[in-house]
User: Fold this.
Amino acid sequence: MPRHTDPSFSIITPEYGNLTAGQKVFVLLAIAGVLLLVMGTSGTYGPSIWPLMLSLLLISIGITGFGYLQYRTKAPGIHNDGVWHRNLTSRGLISLGLAGLLTGFYILLYFFPSYLGLRADGNHGLIGFFDPLSLWIKRQPASQWFVYGVMYTLAILLFGFKFLWKYRHIRYQQLRTISVMFFQLCFAFILPEWMERLNRPSMDLKNMWPLNYSFFFEWNLNDLIQNGTWGLFMLGWGIALILIISPVLTYFFGKRWYCSWVCGCGGLAETAGDPFRHLSDKSLRAWKIERWMVHLVLVIVVVMTAMVLYTYVTGNSRILFLDSFQLRSAYGFFIGAIFSGVIGVGFYPLLGPRVWCRFGCPMAAILGLQQRFFSRFRISTNGGQCISCGNCSVYCEMGIDVRQYAQRGQDIIRASCVGCGICAAVCPRGVLKLENGKIRIPELKDPFVAKASTKGE
Amino acid sequence: MTSKDGVVIIGNGIAGTTAARHIRKQSDVLITMISSEATYFFSRPALMYVYMGHIRLQDTEPYESWFWKKNRITLIQDHVLSIDPAQKSVALSSGNSIPYRTLILATGSEPRKLNIPGEDLDGVTGLYSLHDLQYIEVQTQNIKEAVIAGGGLIGIELTEMLYSRGIKVTLLIREERFYDTVLPMEESRMVERHLEELGIEVIPMTEIRFIEGDTLGRIQAIHTQHGDRIECQFAGITIGVRPNIAGLHCPGLAYKSGYLVDQFLQTNLPGIFAIGDCAELRNPDPDRKAIEPVWYTGRMMGETVASTICGNPTEYHPGYWFNSAKFFNIEYQVYGKIDPTISSDPSGVYWEHPEGCRSIRINATHDKVTGFLLMGIRFRKEVCEHWIQDQTPVERVLAQLDAAFFDSEFSARYGHEVRRIYETRTGRSIRPEMMPIQRKRIGMTSAR
Assistant:
């Protein structure tokens, strides 16, 4: 095949995305909201909550209205027309710009929050603009994390709404999207903020170790232990999640119960990240890198946590050449901030929305190991009806080459599969189905190679 | 081992590629694949998704380039001019010739032509090859109207492609209704309704008589046999395919429409096999056709011929007929026998969703189930074939119907509704029951 060189496939790009009048109105509303937000950073609006609320309302109406109009007129079905032709979704200049913006925002957020207006003696700028809302919700001035939390939650809710419209013909997609929207709004946002208002230790009750790597840090343990029943409950809950709830649910349903139904990182990937899911790398090489990397992070987080606990118990921070305080701050910097934040979300428009989940998340690694070896979950194939078209592989956000299994009629049992179900949705021949069947352990060999004999010629 | 002992495969589509893969699984013999269309195997049914922007051209290739090296399959992009069965060699247009011990012809199909005036104008084409796709890409830039002739699978795929680019499509069908050789009346009408809702005009019982061009040799309209003129800047001729056997000279090789083969897929010449779309079975199995140009039969033939070549002579018995496709948003699956001429079999059942975009048809002869046709609903092939194989009574199938649903979790299952249809008609009542869990493989045609 004249690979990627034929001009008819690269020079000519059809015109897509001519917006309807209605869509233009909603785009303008959203832009107005963003402008108001930018103006608000100058501090001109004083302590009033209303300019911020108006701004967020305009952005919300803009995004949901746009998403609604985008799919309302289309018959229920798969709508991936032009995905690889549009600039925004095919690593064009626009997506590069968007990646730059997101990455820049994350760098400010993690490392230079003062540029966002964080100040001990009274916030200004963007964070100051959020102060009235923060004061109203939890009676404390905003922090960069409050601002981030509001934006993150809004993103999942608004783009989740769009996703619901896009897949309104598939019940599974609807339910899991409503689920991530619910968990983000209630568990990750409202409940912790409310606990802070009550001056209680606050915790995202679904954010489990090792994704929540600071769970066993001494300040957290002390905080929980010193705060009565509620604190002890949260300590117990966190440990029960790790030891009982998660293994049981993963056994019955696979890691999807967490990764695409509950998790906040997954929630953002599935909603705001959905337009970029096809950008994940499907090559065998990428899979090899993934396995090394994600398990390495798991090893590091386990070692770090063990050392932190050792320090907590003994007061001694040094084991051999490692210092538990240095190790934890290095982990927080490289893994917690740069990997999961800056690259994980900033690179959505270039590498797809699951880069963190696939290459970095230690939680996904643990659940993945269990899914691979001790779970009833698999994607089953329907009697060799695969036409090898590749839609399943292309739209797998985790970069699983689903087609390699489907075209051989093999069940797909892969550690990284988050069970989003999009492969089954885009399959034009009805070949794939997510199932919880009887436990089946796949053979430990490279499934991609037709068995070539090792004998010489 | 010398190249004289090798297997040469002409054509690298699904049939040829499957043969190569399965020969390599069983043998270390030298394997050479020759194709003039493309270096690497790609999925032909996926070409439409490239045009629609769902995937890229390289995504249609099921194997990365290292796969061929790792499995020691030599790929040659060249055109085969002739075969010398006496010398056992093939001559290429580059001037090279390649010796073989075993030759597999897997040359596929080519689009049928109407043989009418104007068919060679710019903007008139079928859809089969990679080249066709590239041609369509160029010819449909900035056009407004297109006419597609032919109410089959490729016709509706081409319609969907053009529709995705905002081109107004008129679909001409020679017959009274859509895909009438395969679909019963109700299903045909369902597809036609769906097309109508999308704004696609379907004109039945209409053929193109000639195509009108402008002074530059470009299409500007088609004329039907009724004397109507339809303006368009593109015409797709999708009236089916025929075996691609022209242009390959091989003295003594027997052919009719395709290369004639026996049950072992062997031609009349020793050491030469033919598989896939280009093969014509001398004695097809009951209920199967001599030429079946579909993806799945190509794959099964490739698997079968590989066994034979590797010293395990295997007859080609494809088992029960099955196929699947998608008509825009309506998925279609068929298992076993469906007679398109009867709209309601006396002992079978047809249920249609009130919204008119899903249906379940169970075909039966003397109360024994013989086939399933699903629209907008996925059924599990294993279960359907099991019922057909066991000649299961209709009532038991209806009782166990939920076991067949393959739609995603939480989707509605329609066992109750289908049973209601049957109960109302017969006055009998059916109690739903679980299907005993059976996971045995049926037939020889596993996908592996």
User: Anything to note?
Assistant: Chain B touches chain A through 73 residues (CB under 8 Å). Residues 438-448 of chain B have pLDDT under 50 and may be disordered. The CA atoms of residues 351 and 378 of chain B lie 14 Å apart.
